[in-house]
């Protein structure tokens, strides 16, 4: 195993990919050797010493490729430092939406009792009804586009995770 970090992500419309790219950039600036890859494309964690996994929550369900990633790599992840994030609130970002999203993310992670990330975070998301497909587009077409991603908070979280990984 090398001293390389994998930032793996699942993204349907590109918003979570942009967050993962920002996280990887900050971690590189902090001196870490980072690979950025779609979670669905990762076949082995052999070359990594740590993982950051991120995916969106759609209708309060974590993206299926993040779940598959955890299932596929359970054996290695049990003994590897990992951090995890979900991209969530993307409509109005009120307190209720944040609380519900954080609660659902905890429930999603609880499905993996063996998984003990060193950090976990829910980040704001991006919503553009023009990107949606039928039938969900029909129900959400009247909602305005919104981008609740807080790039300063994302950078701070990435720096905190990088510091924790370097301290290990």
From TrEMBL:
Its protein name is Menaquinone-dependent protoporphyrinogen oxidase
The Flavodoxin-like domain covers 5-162
GO terms under biological process = heme biosynthetic process
Q: Name one GO molecular function term.
A: menaquinone-dependent protoporphyrinogen oxidase activity
Which source organism does the UniProt entry give?
Pelolinea submarina
Alphabetical list of Pfam families matching this protein: Flavodoxin_5
Q: Which InterPro entries match?
A: Flavodoxin/NO_synth, Flavodoxin_dom, Flavoprotein-like_sf, Protoporphyrinogen_IX_DH
Taxonomy of the source species: Bacteria, Bacillati, Chloroflexota, Anaerolineae, Anaerolineales
